[in-house]
Amino acid sequence: MHIVVVSVNHKTADVSLREKLTFSESSIQQALSALINQKSILEGVILSTCNRTEIYAVTDQVHTGRYYVKSFMSEWFDVDIETIKSVTDVKVGNEAIHHLFKVITGLDSIVLGETQILGQIRDSFLLAQSEGTTGTVFNKLFKDAITLAKRAHAETDISSKAVSVSYAAVELSKKILGKLENKKILIVGAGEMAELALQNLVGSGATDITVINRTAEKAKSLADQYGGRQVSLQELQCALIESDIVISSTSSQEFIITKPMMQDIMKLRKNKSLVLIDIAVPRDIDPEVNDIDLIFNYDVDDLKGLVDANLAERERAAQVIYTMIDKQVISFVDWINMLGVVPVITALREKALRIQATTMDSIDRKMPNLSERDRKVISKHMKSIINQILKDPISQAKEVSGSENRAEELQFFQEIFNITNEVESIKNNEPEVRRSKNSFVFNPEQ
């Protein structure tokens, strides 16, 4: 059993390729089902955000597991397998565990320490759990990861001040146009990223805000919450004519703002410059609008260059969190190793208890006049002897769990006590790993 993560992120692929390898919200459930039906895949979780697409899998073999995850991505996105190989970062075992902990704590984000990824991973895991594609291993791993991230944000300054892609977009607007108090700002979209941008805009002094969304009710609700106004999607071009700054973040699979549209709009703006910031993946704004004079167009990759004023503090906090991660990796690996030892210890205890029961039956036959009290005393002392005899072997078995040669040593241990058949029987009667949904089920309220 091995843990594998295959990742496409802002470090391995540019935005034009990442948007091709993004799972739409409506397709995740179907994708999870297709993933778990691949050979070698025992458990699976899919994370798909604006900056990364990652597939976490428990596999029966490392090499075949990696192959079938990449093959699944190639088939699902209709992208050549060689392209998938060239833009994916693959981590296995301890490195995969460390990667998850690093991502969920915000240490692998474009903006160090951002908190949005915690909620995204939590939601991805809960969806996979509800779809039955997680089991004993991932139910434990992702619960540990979520708990670790909450501790990291609570105990360090890594997220003491809001920093995210949305915040970076607002900071970029201020760098270009200065103070935002007298600027007309248009938000296209009404999702989480749009709301984060609004929070930071209002915090930076913006007051003239318009929200447009395909669903008018969501746009109105968001606009009302932040003192803005809502207009319909049909009024997009009119809103673009009047705006100074446009921040777009929708889930559209096609461009919302196109080059021909902006060519017509800029003629009506009478040489007035316009800042367009696209924080959506796939992109909302056609990159060809860069060819039009007086348009300053930026996408999520452009935001990488922004340096947050609190970066030095966050870097120091990050070092503390790395120490926390290292300890949590060790703890989880110890737990994983113990999974292989538990059937051995169980078999040893059960064999000892069978011997004790057989011996008590023999005593009852040979000494039928024993009182109930005498039987209890004898039984109690026999169990005490068994526990004392088993104490050292069980302790040794637990020590073996951390050995590099634990498979061979555990096999030798089983042969010494002649419990190989009992161990196999216990393993065969355990629930299939990926269907063990009731083990370590994560409570979202924790």
UniProtKB/TrEMBL annotation:
PROSITE patterns: GLUTR (PS00747). Residues 6-156 form the Glutamyl-tRNA reductase N-terminal domain. The gene is hemA. Keywords: NADP, Oxidoreductase, Porphyrin biosynthesis. Residues 323-419 form the Tetrapyrrole biosynthesis glutamyl-tRNA reductase dimerisation domain. GO terms for biological process: protoporphyrinogen IX biosynthetic process. Substrate binds at T49, C50, N51, R52, S109, E114, T115, Q116, Q120. Pathway: Porphyrin-containing compound metabolism; protoporphyrin-IX biosynthesis; 5-aminolevulinate from L-glutamyl-tRNA(Glu): step 1/2. The active site is at C50. This is Glutamyl-tRNA reductase. The keyword S-adenosyl-L-methionine does not apply. GO terms for molecular function: glutamyl-tRNA reductase activity; NADP binding. It is an enzyme of class 1 (oxidoreductase). It comes from Macrococcoides caseolyticum. Gene3D superfamilies: Glutamyl-tRNA reductase, N-terminal domain (3.30.460.30), NAD(P)-binding Rossmann-like Domain (3.40.50.720). NADP(+) binds at G189, A190, G191, E192, M193, A194.
